[in-house]
Amino acid sequence: MRIGVPKEPENEARVAIVPGSMKKLIKAGFEVLVEKGAGMNANYLDSQYEELGAKIVSRKEALECENIICINYPGLDGINSGTNLTCVSDPFRNPQSVNECMEAKVTLMSMDMIPRRLSRAQSMDVNSSQDNLAGYKAVLLGAANVPRGIPMMTTSAGTVRPAKVVVMGSGVAGLQAIATAKRLGAVVYASDVRKSAAEQIESVGGRFIEVDGMDDFEDESGYAKPLTPEFIQKVNDTVCGVAMDADIIITTARIFGRPAPITVPTSAVDNFKSGAVVVDMNADVGGNCESTVAGKVITTKNGVIIVGTSNLPGTLANTASMLYSNNLTTFITSLVDDGKVVISEDDDVLVGAPEGSDFYVGGMGGVLICKDGELHPKQTRLAGVVE
Prior knowledge:
The chain is of the alpha/beta class. The protein has helices at residues 22-27, 46-51, 59-63, 95-104, 126-145, 172-184, 197-203, 229-243, 266-269, 317-334, 348-351, 380-386, and strands at residues 2-5, 31-35, 55-57, 67-72, 84-88, 107-110, 153-155, 158-160, 164-168, 187-191, 207-208, 248-251, 277-280, 297-299, 305-307, 336-337, 340-341, 368-371, 374-375. The protein has an eight-stranded mixed β-sheet. A seven-stranded mixed β-sheet has the order 11-10-9-12-13-15-14, sandwiched between helices.
């Protein structure tokens, strides 16, 4: 069994498999072929891979392996029919990648589709591992750009009040952002459309912003549901009201497979104080802030700084790669049976929980997107996008 690890595109500093995963992969029976320089941008040297048993090869050789593990969808040039391709393909936003794999009869497994509520899937959940780092880095970017200190300071020259931070959304990224801002000494307020999130917010030191009429807007997958325009407006008005005198505002709202919802309209930015920093964690999928420019840091006419840095986990490439590699190593070794990688219809991580299970989600399968030229039959929601 061979695993190929190609180098990621130029705009991606992470690498899918790190040297520390070699021992577990080799023990499971894999031969690991890493493209030359694949880990360089994440500070993993070719010599480190070789010392732990991997082979450093050309891109052509890495892509000829029967199993390929990467982060971004690599395209199919040089990949053979029947290959197991495991990556984060974001199939709802990039249906062309699914069509390409079906035409080429490549088995596509997209790790962002993992059934995150399955206990066995949690150690394979790349969404959580990368979102956690993104939430941490968002706070650091806010702190680096805001023109004031974060914690309360009592000095002979006077007392500095703690900064006020507002975090919009309290999924994995939001909770880490709240905890990080709290550790830096800020007073943290946070919101979420899931009323059940109040306890989680308070457990990491935040103060919950409640909106009148709030219910638990959460779907069976554990993601936030799309909201009515009227309720979105109500949430925006309430939370942006709290944020009017905030020093740092972090937006985290992301709806699975859809463009990011606007939670900070330009009209709200116009009312934020000069020097406030908005860190938009979803600049790569449209942005939560209407004024965000993806990939750039801009300053509005009224002095609000808007950070649109894309791929926040990639800015922590060494740690992000290590966590992603742990997720993927656990996943790929779980598929090994009698010296072969087996794509089993009985594996809930691959195909989703069976109907009748507490974890069943109608219209959604697992990470297995397509095999033998056909979309997996459980991926009925995706079928509507692909067709």
